[in-house]
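Researcher: We plan to redesign the surface later, but first we want a full-length starting point. Tokens attached.
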């Protein structure tokens, strides 16, 4: 059995972070899940499974109202809620004790701690680890902002658009500065900061598919000038996403995007 199991909706670029790190570092990670609109028909647990209608009747005591990302009710075990008190996915379970780890960057760190390639998380240099953590934290703030933006596309307002645009520019201004002095975001080695960056920005670029919704508020995709305004950041994404370890996980996700 894998030492790390992740339950999530699929595909999920935020889970890809852990899978890319696992592939580079030789760690076994098991992913269980389904399409987003099917996950309400699953039992949320370490032993997650699809529920039949009879299963739902028998497990009615586990029925909980969804408060984030899903509508209606979701079946979550008491153990799931104990290990994942915020009740969200992706939900990681680590080690023989099946300890719950939540938030994609935290799951990513858990994978990295088991990697054969210790440079992914700064080796034994706590100063480099702390710098990597800084980029992961800023990355998470950006991802929270654009998650709302993408979820609200069918009722998008200029307020949400402007707020996301500000977060995007703040984030990429920093990434561009970091890459101006080194080959990778943190120094001269590939780290978790690079992996998380590629997966998050790839997900954000989906905004260009909502041309109709953006037209309705007389706006263009926030990332429309990505390549020219942030050339180092764009090139970094393009180079890394084409690498074997990234491409095997991300597949054709970016094929639609003209690079």
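Model: Full-length starting sequence:
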């Amino acid at each position: 059995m894998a030492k790390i199991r992740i339950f999530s909706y699929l595909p999920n670029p935020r889970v890809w972070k852990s899978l890319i790190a696992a592939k580079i570092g030789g760690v076994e990670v098991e992913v269980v899940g389904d399409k987003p609109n099917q996950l309400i028909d699953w039992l949320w647990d370490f032993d997650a499974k699809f529920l039949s209608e009879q299963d739902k009747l028998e497990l009615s005591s586990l029925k909980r109202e969804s408060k984030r990302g899903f509508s209606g009710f979701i079946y979550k075990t008491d153990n799931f809620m104990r290990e994942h008190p915020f009740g969200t996915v992706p939900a990681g379970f680590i080690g023989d004790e099946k300890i719950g780890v939540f938030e994609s960057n935290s799951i990513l760190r858990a994978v990295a701690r088991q990697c054969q390639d210790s440079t992914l998380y700064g080796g034994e240099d706590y100063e480099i680890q702390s710098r990597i953590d800084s980029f992961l934290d800023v990355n998470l703030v950006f991802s929270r902002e654009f998650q709302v933006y993408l979820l609200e596309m069918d009722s998008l307002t200029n307020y949400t658009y402007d707020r996301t645009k500000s977060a995007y520019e703040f984030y990429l201004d920093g990434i561009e500065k970091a890459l101006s002095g080194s080959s990778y975001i943190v120094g001269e080695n590939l780290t978790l900061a690079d992996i998380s960056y590629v997966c998050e920005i790839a997900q954000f670029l989906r905004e260009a598919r909502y041309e109709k919704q953006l037209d309705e508020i007389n706006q263009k995709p926030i990332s429309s000038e990505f390549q020219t305004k942030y050339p180092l950041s764009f090139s970094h994404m393009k180079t890394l996403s084409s690498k074997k370890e990234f491409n095997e996980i991300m597949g054709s996700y970016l094929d639609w995007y003209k690079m």
